[in-house]
Specification:
By secondary structure, the protein is of the alpha/beta class. The protein is built from 16 helices and 28 strands. A hairpin with a 4-residue loop joins strand 5 and strand 6. The protein starts with 10 loop residues before the first helix and ends with a strand. The structure holds calcium ion (CA).
Length: 675
């Protein structure tokens, strides 16, 4: 993500691996003071309501006093009661209880430390809140479950390479009038069947089913700070990378942010509707920083503890957003682990995408994966294997993509394939393999083999990473674009200004064909299947809906593009050869053809051989031509079915070929198969 105009991405990786001379890594004397605090791994922090009454717990080992304020209203008025809490020294947990089930009431915690009462906070374990998340709400979760919720579950996932990810923002997906969706910008948007564009094309959840993706990856949907929930008609937009309450859904995506039940119930309805459609739900989680520094819930409950600092006590800032959390401290690790488990259990979430994951330590991420997979082995965890600035955390402990082997069951984004295929993210005019710039062939190959070791790939020639960092393709997420940076459509417009739209559409198809046939998990940004743009805005995190919303009129206009994406996904899902599960399999069954890149630049050709991964096809030939002219490849004689050629694709075949010398059109993929 990007926030406050901080540019962050892979370019920082190399610097971060080596670090900078100015940073002394490891615990500094300021942060050392937090080392000895007792931690508490119970899941009853915050609030518990049972037949005996209502009890409150807050972890705050340094506080001198802690109290709970009880309110009738989620936003205004004075407390009707204030209760002093008592400390258990062995755990650092303060607690108190009151008789009765206080459903419908609200509460805040307040600590006394360093000679003053700090501001009120709902704590870090609030599971329901009033409008704008300033007070925690006491609700009966039994009243938030949709019908048949007890039988709800996401799609079965055997291998993460079987997953097809679709990254979307709630407002982008439904806000445009052409969506035909009633609950625009809401969780409920994805619960509406039968919606169409003015031209009669499917939108919303029916569109997702038609496209064939297996999982939607929703941009931050926990309660974030920037949008004023009390003023929804203002139609404020934000991506949501400014966390406020980690364990509560965002209020502006509900139909009534003042009703603490609404956001909880409606998010579950969304999950249920997607699950009923056979689609899993991945949440984008941003534990690496908070929207506020002094005013955050983490800071107000345990000042200093949850963040990393510099030697002088100032805030360290590897997020580029003003602070960075300290997953290497036990109670922060407990918080992250228990928070994702909570979402997986209470909301049936099927996966988590960790923002700026390298701010977290590998040990904590390993624990996240271990504990989530104990709940359900198919939960998919992946993240950005980089930071946005330097950190006191030692580079070897960071959950960097280059350290992915230190974690079990975590995948990382491949910025290698991203930048090689379309051009560098930070230079709008830069082109890549698919848009005709020579020199990235080897890096595209790194993407094709899922960053695993392969005898025919020379990692020293890689643009970004210089070694095979993935031990398995299940550790890699391949993509060419996401919410960050220019959409693929905009990138191609800026980097190929002289090209016709037809040529740019062809490049887009080629770029995604590379992603969707590569080993690893494919990921796409919502709307690119209808050639969605963001009007040239790369960091649209708070741009208006007029920039961000997907115009669904484009689905009819670019129906050919949509059909290509749909068939490309269908091809991948029907053929396990594109979804191998081990580096050994890839090394054995994926064979590149010898091509002299000096004489034939922007040309890659390879075979998936011997019924790779149990495929019904004996051999699949995949050829990418990113040049602006046709190139000829020699294909062995045989009885081939043509699957993709000249911008057309169909898993059932679009023609026959005997092999031999075959001309591959400019900016296009050729896929052939034989039994
Ligand atoms: Ca909010």
């Amino acid at each position: 993500m990007k926030f406050r105009n901080i540019v962050m991405s892979a370019a920082t990786t190399a610097m971060l691996l080596g670090g900078t001379a100015a940073t002394a890594y490891g615990q500094n004397t300021f942060d050392m003071q937090f080392a000895g605090y007792p931690a508490y791994n119970g899941t009853d922090l915050g609030l518990a309501v049972d037949s005996k009454g209502t009890s409150f717990k807050l972890w705050s080992p340094q506080a001198e006093r802690v109290r709970v304020n009880l309110y009738d209203d989620g936003r205004t008025g004075k407390p009707f009661k204030t209760i002093d809490m008592s400390l258990d020294n062995s755990t650092g947990v303060w607690s108190c209880s009151v008789p009765g089930q206080l459903y419908g009431k609200f509460y805040t915690f307040q600590i006394f430390q360093h000679g003053k009462w700090h501001d009120e906070t709902p704590g870090i374990w609030a599971k329901a809140v009033g409008v704008n998340g300033r007070r925690a709400a006491i609700i009966d979760f039994k009243k938030t479950t949709p019908e048949n919720w007890e039988n709800d579950k996401g799609p079965e996932v055997r291998h993460f390479t079987d997953v097809v990810l679709y990254e979307m923002h709630h407002r982008d997906m439904s806000l445009h009038p052409s969506s035909g969706i009633a609950n625009k910008g809401k969780f409920l948007a994805l619960t509406e069947p039968g919606t169409t564009s003015p031209q009669g094309e499917k939108t919303g959840i029916d569109h997702l089913k038609e496209l064939g993706v297996t999982h939607v990856h929703i941009l931050p949907s926990y309660d974030y700070n920037s949008v004023d929930e009390a003023n929804l008609p203002a139609n404020q937009y934000n991506w949501g990378y400014d966390p406020q309450n980690y364990n509560v859904p965002e209020g502006s995506y509900s139909t009534n942010p003042s009703d603490p039940y609404a956001r909880v119930r409606e998010m579950k309805q969304m999950v249920k509707a997607l699950h009923d459609a056979g689609i899993g739900v991945v949440m984008d989680v941003v534990y690496n920083h908070t929207a506020e520094n002094d005013g955050s819930n983490l800071e107000l409950t345990a000042p200093g503890y949850y963040y990393r600092h510099r030697e002088d006590g100032s805030w360290s800032d590897a997020s580029g957003c003003g602070n960075e959390t300290a997953s290497d401290r036990e109670q922060m690790a407990n918080f992250i682990v228990n928070s994702v488990k909570y979402w997986a259990e209470e909301y049936h979430i099927d996966g988590f995408r960790f923002d700026l994951m390298a701010i977290h330590d590998t040990e904590t991420m390993d624990r996240v994966a271990r504990e989530l997979k104990q709940l359900r082995p198919g939960i998919f965890i992946y993240g950005e294997g980089w930071t946005a600035g330097d950190s006191p955390l030692e580079p070897e402990r960071r959950a960097l993509k280059e350290n992915v082997a230190k974690m079990n069951g975590i995948a990382v984004f491949s910025d290698d394939i991203r930048d090689a295929v379309k051009g560098h993210y930070s230079d709008a005019a830069d082109r890549g393999f698919a848009s005709g710039k020579p020199g990235s062939e080897e890096t595209v190959k790194i993407g094709i083999v899922g960053a695993t070791a392969h005898p025919q790939v020379n990692y020293k020639k890689g643009n970004n990473s210089k070694f095979p960092y993935a031990q398995s393709p299940e550790m890699i997420v391949n993509y060419v674009s996401c919410h960050d940076d220019l959409t693929l459509t905009d990138k191609l417009l800026k980097s190929m200004p002289e090209a016709t739209e037809a040529e740019r559409l062809a490049v887009a198809k080629l770029a995604q064909t590379i992603v969707f046939t590569s080993q690893g998990t494919p990921f796409m940004f919502a709307g690119e299947e209808v050639f969605r743009d963001k009007k040239g805005v790369h960091n649209s995190y708070k741009s208006p809906d007029s920039v961000n919303a997907i115009d669904w009129n484009q689905k009819a206009r670019y129906r050919d593009q949509f059909d290509y994406y749909k068939n490309l996904i269908a091809l991948r899902k029907a053929h396990p050869a594109f979804r191998m599960t081990s580096a050994e399999q890839i090394a054995k069954h994926l064979k590149f053809d010898k091509i002299n890149s000096d004489r034939q630049p922007n040309l890659i050709s390879y075979s998936l051989t011997d019924h790779a991964n149990g495929d019904e096809w004996k051999e699949i030939k995949v050829v990418f031509n990113g040049a602006d002219h046709a190139q000829t490849v020699s294909i062995k004689k045989g009885d081939w079915a043509v699957i993709a050629r000249d911008g057309k694709i169909d898993p059932a075949g679009i023609g026959q070929s005997d092999g031999g010398n075959i001309e591959v059109a400019p900016r296009s993929a050729l896929i052939m198969a034989r039994r």
